[in-house]
Amino acid sequence: MDAGLLAQYVMNGLMLGTMYALVAVGFTLFFGVLDVIKFSHGDVLTVGGFTALATFVGLGALGIKSSPFVLLIMLIVAIVVTAALGMLIARYLVLPLRTAPPLNTLLATLMLGTVLREAVRLFYPQGANPKSFPALLPTDALTLGQFNLRLDNVLMLAAGAGVIVGLQLILNRTKLGLAIRAVAQDEETARSMGINYTAIVLVTFALGSALAAFAGIMNGLYYNEINFGTGLLLGVIGFAAAIVGGLGSIYGAILGGFLFAALQIIGAVMLPFASAYKDVFAFAVVIALMAWRPTGLIREKISERV
Amino acid sequence: MTTLLETRGLTKNFGGVVALDHLDLSVASNTIVGLIGPNGSGKTTFFNVVTGIYNVDTGVVVFDGTDITRAASPTIHRTGISRTFQRSRLSLPLSIFDNIMIGNHTRLTQGIWFNLMRRRAFMREFEASYLAARRLVEVFEPRLVERMFDPVAGLAMIDRRRIEICRAMINQPKLLLLDEPSAGMTHEETTALMDDILQVRALNQHLTIVIVEHEMSIIERITDHCVVLNFGRKIAEGPYRQVATDAQVQEAYLGVT
Amino acid sequence: MRDTAHGPVAPLLPGAAALAIATVYLIALLAVETQSLIIGLLMLAIVTVLGVSRTGLWASVSRSFSEREDALGLLSIVAAFAVVAFFHDHHFVLLLVVTILLYTIAALGLTIQFGYAGVMNFAGASFFGIGAYTAAVLNTQTAVPHLLVLPIGGLVAALIGSLLLLPVLRTRGHYAAVVTIAFALLFKTFLEVNDGLGGPQGLQVPGMNILGWSLNDNMTFGGFELSFYANYFAVSMVMSIGTFVLLRRLDRSWIGLNFDALRLDETAAGCFGIDIARWKIIAFTFGNFLIGAAGALFGMVGGFVAPNNYTFADSLILVSILLLGGIGNAWGVAVATIIVVVVPEKLQTIQEYRFLLYASLVIIVLLFRPEGLLPRPVRRYFAGWRP
């Protein structure tokens, strides 16, 4: 295969992997802190993407069009909105259901995902149709043989990597991160050490949701389009990616994200005629993964006391 | 004295923690054996390994001449082992009768055609099962008979423990494993429970019982033989009076003297 | 709590009265056309239910239904025929009734899987769709008798479901959920990209034809016009009754007990000899069979199949029916199905919003009344039996 074409595939894989990784890390954060799988996470991503789009439209109406400035505002607004959404979800849905059987939380968050998805579809003007997302990053490209190294892709990759690294720093180098990890490990002890449990839970949810907003915008910028159903697909794959690494491990989630992206790209390469089936392939892989390793490549802690 | 249950070199690790450490233990038929030791000494792990809930790392478990080391829980149950659980594991929304019938699974006709189509025959089996369950419940607490079809969730802890024992007894096992039956009960309730267990024994002379307990009065009163565990190893065995005065046992419970 | 197995059998009257009132109400709701009147009727129902649930009436109706089920079952059949007779030439309403019956069968299939055995299935609509597509293909491409297509649709659904058995058996909790969610998404995407099955447009389904009797023809008896949907009503009614009876026997047997045991505590169930895998397989497969068979008939009734009717959101609607009606309670499921199907059809304004509406409703239910409308009663193997 031509080196340029290969490089193109690699770039696709890296972009896809970063997006999956961002979503997967969110799942891992929620699970680590509350032992809960927030099935609405993917749809929070959709909300983030559409919020950014709405901001863009709004700013355009106000006459503000200067590119990097607009993107920055979109980012900030989307992150603030999704972080707030994440906190509301934690405060009014997930925390109250802690004492109920875990099945109820699972069902409630699944339903919440539907509410978010449908809200976007119904209340965003023409929400049912894919909307074009503005290209706000410089599109200059460096041509190396068959391969077009686009500046915007590089910027997004760098930003994505930056966010992941930033998150690692927060978790490992700050007091907040320490508190989050303490709560994730042992709620009782963390509380007795004086950590405000509820506050940490809310912050963790805000953090994870903000990551989703970032992924949503990245998704929009890369494909120049967003769609109310995107979040659901990304959510399922993101969750599977988190499982691959073993729920609760940030590194595992990142690894899982890239692994999935690699699988999809390889699938697309090997079956070029079946590119429409790439999503089918991804879901089949998820199912096969669950058949092979029901709790991920790394064992989840056994929590059941007999 | 035939040996009913025997383990040789039984070892079980969890991550880095050694729960069972090359344990050699044997239980003689028709005896009541007490399994004691400080918290974390491996008593419940032992039960879980024997009943197939956990896999063994190394070692052998032989029951009534059959090697059950690698067998799954349902298979092990069919060889004649029943148990209760430390944390009472009754199905709370289900009735007393339903819970006991879960223990009777191997004796009930499970065919789909029978259950769906042969309703008259099913009725007969149902009524016979009701009588069997009722006989058993009457031994422990006759007042529960009128509540046979009420959910277990509404019962007091001691009654739930009794029903758990009924569930384990209904299909007449050869070996009964009781895991801390007196947990969460008052002194009076504990005494009543002991009487129940002895009555059970009187009903069925061929029943062998292994009982894990922290309440030493029970152990002293009803067991023929004791085995003391510490850190997954057997450190003493013999009649209760003897192990109670053993220096190693005292050290295990009380710390270094 | 007194064990009523030792007391008198619950009276028939509360249940029968509730059934009569509900039937009249349903006829009124279906007949009325003006949106404001419909909203008024719905408000009335909500207020009445909320009010009654605070009194002992609710409990006595509940007991009546669980102990006098045979009689009330017969009365329900009569009620259904009454509704059909009232709307005998009204195509739209009769189609609605048929839809209710077929969705109820699918929801009952899901009940066996999820309500009884605790096996999660978030792809219920997909299996419904498999049945429907099977009918489409068989009715157009083959000469297989249409009545036979129904169980074949069920078999195909069960067979495709068996591909998921390994992951379903090996997973629990959220991991198990992902398996069927992924399948639901996979199925819809597959149908959309696969032109052999009509792609996004879907396929036409020839109407049902039993030994020369074409169900798609209206019938006239003297001056009495009978919409052709009444024919389908007859077939669906037979299927529904069969399913109800089957489910009731299943639940009130040792098999039902096995399902409960493995749903409530798998580990303990294994320790008493219950073969977990076997019973999960039976629940999952049989449930899919019912869903597929109902889907096959649905395809024939509707006349066409398309991927857009069998999405993940539709699967969640089926799950919502169970959660709203009361998991594991067949009557609750029937009532919830009626609500879920009728309300968006009558209130055209909310038709588009139905996924949003029902998802929100379920969240509220989960937060404040997780047992649903009609909680599942304790098992009584034989209604009215006394030792």
Protein described:
The complex is a heterotrimer of chains A (306), B (257) and C (387). Chain A has 306 residues and is mainly alpha-helical. Chain A has a domain at 17-138 and 153-230. Helix content of chain A is 72%, strand content 4%. Chain A has 11 helices and 4 strands; from the N terminus they run ααααβββααααβααα. Chain A has helices at residues 3-34, 41-61, 67-94, 102-123, 151-173, 175-185, 187-192, 197-223, 230-244, 250-270, 278-292, and strands at 131-132, 141-144, 147-150, 225-226. In chain A, strand 2 and strand 3 form a beta hairpin. In chain A, helix 1 packs across helix 6 and helix 1 (3-34) packs antiparallel against helix 10 (250-270). The radius of gyration of chain A is 19 Å and the shape is globular. With 257 residues, chain B is α/β, with parallel strands linked by helices. Chain B has 10 helices and 10 strands. In chain B, helix 3 runs parallel beside helix 6 and helix 5 packs across helix 6. In chain C, the strands form 3 sheets. A two-stranded antiparallel sheet of chain C has the order 1-6. A two-stranded antiparallel ribbon of chain C has the order 2-3. Chain C has 2 domains: 1-86, no CATH class; 88-368, ABC transporter involved in vitamin B12 uptake, BtuC (Orthogonal Bundle). Chain C is globular. Chains in contact: A-B, A-C, B-C. Chain A binds chain C through residues 37, 39, 93, 96-97, 100, 102-104, 106-108, 110-112, 114-115, 117-119, 122, 232-233, 236, 239-240, 243, 276-277, 279-280, 283-284, 286-288, 290-291, 294-295, 304, 306, and chain C through 122, 164, 166-167, 170-179, 181-183, 185-186, 189-190, 193, 267, 312-313, 316, 319-320, 323, 352-353, 355-356, 359-360, 362-363, 366-367, 370.
